[in-house]
Amino acid sequence: MRMLDLPEYSLYEVHVSGEERKLGARAFPLFVQLNWSKDDREGRFLLKREGDKPISAKEAIKEQSDLNRRLSKRESKKKKKREKEADRNKQNKPEEPKPEEKVRRRDDGAVSP
């Protein structure tokens, strides 16, 4: 019976490039993560049950992005306000004149086309 079996889990190191490595019993995850900065890499840790079907790194990253935390009311208001401000700035931004329409000023203050 599967329910009475104690499942075994393993910790995996998954990188954006798709590389996946199982950490050994003597590996320290904090030291592994600290070494990522030396190699200019980014990664995640993934806890998987042994015997389950393998998932790709892209699927793991997608699942992680689905688990993003929900913004608080204050944070969502700030975000909405920033988006409105950005939209307003886009609409009110005057278009730059075309190069042939630009007016050049000489050193003596006179305007030349």
From TrEMBL:
According to the record, the residues making up region (Disordered) are 47-113
Under InterPro entries, the record lists: Afadin, RA_dom, Ubiquitin-like_domsf
**Which organism does this record belong to?**
Priapulus caudatus (Priapulid worm)
Sequence ranges of Basic and acidic residues compositional bias: 47-69, 83-113
Q: Which residue ranges does the record assign to the Ras-associating domain? A: 1-52
Which stretches does UniProt call biased (Basic residues)?
70-82
Descriptive protein name = Afadin-like
Q: Name one Pfam family in it.
A: RA
